[in-house]
Design a protein that fits this description.
Elements lengths: L2 E6 L2 H12 L17 E3 L5 E6 L4 H6 L5 E5 H7 L4 E6 L5 E8 L14 E5 L2 H9 L5 E5 L6 H4 L5 E6 L3 H5 L2 E10 L1 E6 H6 L1 H15 L2
Parallel strand pairs: 1-3, 1-4, 7-8, 7-9
Antiparallel strand pairs: 2-3, 4-11, 5-11, 6-9, 6-10
Length: 215
Amino acid sequence: MSLVIALPKGRILDEAGPLLARAGIYPEADYADESSRRLRFPTNHPGLDAIRVRSFDVATFVAFGAAQLGICGGDVLMEFDYPEIYAPLDLGIGKCRISVAEPKDEAGSTDFTRASALRVASKYPNVAKKHFAARGVQAEIVALNGSMELAPGLGLSRVIVDLVQTGSTLKANGLVETDVIAQVSSKLIVNRIALKTRPDEVGAWIEAFRKALAP
């Protein structure tokens, strides 16, 4: 049975292309075409297929063994924290940060530690809750999958927790970063059971990526 590597759609997929090539992996060309309706792609290795899924789903495919390897953002790993996943390599791509942001005019004016509850809009409910709980703040999470920047201005939340790359979207919507929760990048992840049951195959791909990262 072929091994499967899960690749995320979007920006990270573009950044992963050269890295995959250095690791000797060449999926069929349309894997990088977002308009292609195909989701599973043979590679130049008969024993390895690639699948293209939402970035938030990569960890789930690997954790449950549907894929044995994957390229996954550190933000996703923080949010789900699957014990079934081993992340042996930081790939140094997809660099960004998870941050707290609030309206520019209100930034720094609220003592969150004195608030009985704080409403936070985020697609990272677990990360957000842990962050504020560590500061003694009970966070009420409003789960959103996008357009987070609209939430404070429309009264949906006081602050947001979101992934930030340049900060330009925040600025365009009158928000500023007030706390950086974590710097994140994409990692090579593997399913722990697959690593135990197919150590030679999975281990060989870990080593191929390790060499691909070498200067």
